[in-house]
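Q: I'm teaching a short session on how sequence maps to structure, and I want students to see two examples side by side rather than one. Could you give me a first protein with its sequence written out and its structure tokens following it? Keep the formatting plain so it prints cleanly on a handout.
A: Of course. Example one:
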Amino acid sequence: MRVLGVDPGLTRCGVGVVDGAPGRPLHMVACGVVRTPADADVAHRLLQIEQGLELWFDTHQPELVAVERVFAQHNVRTVMGTAQASAVAMLCATRRGIPVTLHTPSEVKAAVTGSGRADKDQVGAMVTRLLRLDAPPKPADAADALALAICHIWRGAAVDRIAAAVAATRAPRPSSHARPKEYRR
């Protein structure tokens, strides 16, 4: 499967594409950042993020998208920008009919490093090792986007199977009068 990871941000929106499957080697396709000028107005910055992400979608044709779930911080302005960039990524994917999954930062860190409290250097080092790269991806936003894609490849399939199983157990059962006569009691 090909997963596009998005580490949302208004100034630097990290993007990374990884091919792989659970239990198989992972391969980095590409990584980078979509940048916007801090002095531009928010509407224009969001438009630039949308245009940059659309280019990534066109170029790499992902099957799934993993976006970092926005979490509460003390700086409301930062949270708002991150949430807005996240929404743009979800919109771009949904417009194309590509499933989107949100992963928390601690979930991504735990999947990639084994610890939900890992720092950026540890995440970068593990991304480098898992993707068999010569050096950690730069900037850190690109490494974080690759970590999101890796997390989804490893955890997303299991989460999807669990959700499908739960949905199947909640599905209404046909009533006895709808069953063929030979199966009625």
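Q: Perfect. Now a second example for contrast.
A: Example two:
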Amino acid sequence: MVDFGGTGAMLLVIGVAGLVCAALALLLARPLGWISALAIAGFVWSLAVIGAVTLVPTSAHTGIVAAEGRMTTCSWDIGGPAPDGFWIFESGQRTLNTVLFVPAGALLVLAVARWRAGWILAPLGILALGGYSALIEKTQLELARIDRACDVTDVVDNLTGAVLGAAVGLGLVIVLRPWRHRARHDSRPSSGRGSR
């Protein structure tokens, strides 16, 4: 029987992850600058939020799912019926699944933009977000006790959200130019000692 779940448990996981990621941002701010540090820490936090919202049971007392009542495969009914939203969201489940991955896509692009390899890392990261979504669905299938359903439509919606987020991230990169915001000691002109 699962005794951990519900909105309070989700908020607890999200809050603890937020504190850890805030510490990560502080640690990265000096070598990378605040924009990149916040983007990296925010990306990690968005992954934790996604994990909390999708893997923490919606109720603390989900009970035991009998073996014969457990799904053996994911639903492949693309675009099929989805329940209404839950928690603080007033929209449908498919909208929630899309919106949930938008911050991750945007922060991913912003996080890797300071490096030249960002043109390769960003698309690979979007594919990895799709893999993360598939892993969540597989976990929901295998862990019947968390009372979640595995649905391929969720992966499609999540990947759509990640791509939309990446487009937002490109806009943020153009405005914020994270490669210009380096640590102070990197931006100081050299004193000229030892130069010829």
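Q: What should students look for in example two?
A: Point them to this: Residues 6-65+91-182 form one domain. Also worth mentioning: Residues 85-90, 183-196 have pLDDT under 50 and may be disordered.
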